[in-house]
Amino acid sequence: MTLNITNVAVLVVLGLFATGFYGLLAVRNLIKVVVALQILVKGAMVALVAAGNLTGQLQAAQSMALTVIVADTIVAVVALALAVQVRRCIGTLDIKALTSLKR
Amino acid sequence: MWHVLASLGILVCAIQAIRSQRLLMSALWLAGTSALVSLLLYLLGAPEVAVIELSVGAGLVTVLFVFAINIAGEEAIHLRSPLPRVLTWVTVIAATVLVGWMVFPGMAMPASVPVAEPSFTTTLWVDRRVDVLLQVVLIFSGVLGVLGLLSEGRAGAQKESRQ
What we know:
The structure holds two protein chains of two kinds.
Chain A: H1 5-26, H2 30-55, H3 58-90
Helix pairs in contact in A: 1-2, 2-3
Chain B: H1 2-19, H2 23-43, H3 47-72, H4 85-107, H5 120-127, H6 129-162
């Protein structure tokens, strides 16, 4: 396998996916879970653009990647707001402490 | 050559963002990941998305993280992960192999003939206008989320000042 840019981009996609997925499974801090989710979504975005590069449809890939960026940012904003609320209500960011929905 | 360096940097920054014990350092490593991802996107021939990723991913999201960490407080959790370590690694490796198994056959296909595409502006505003509408709705949701965060901060500050 040659190290051209598309192959390298696919390897980056796999690396980002593995790192983000590991973070989602192994991390107990709520804010770090959001960090892991961001890494996972960056992998998806690179995959979209690499696919566009490979098929010669870069403009369509770019517009889809733009939607991914917007959705990812909104998810981060809402998730961080929720993390702050959880910290205020429960006093910790440990996801193991989220055993109840009551205040 | 640049794409290999950028890719190595992306992976190092992403792993450090997960490994770092301090939340602030984690957010900064994530910003580095975003900046290098934008460089890779530029090298892949997508400059518009690269600029947006640089400004939103490395700029706005990092500011939001620092803001949230400032409000919630730096709390490094050194406890064990919720899943057994072996199960975590097996799940991650299995999922990554599955994704690679789906992606790599597509890489072996012969390179397609470049299609005469409309410009990015036409593609975004005409061909994918439903996506743009969805983005507007999402942005309004995000604004409401930020307002909720800010108003909660104000309520908390008022409560503290009363005490």
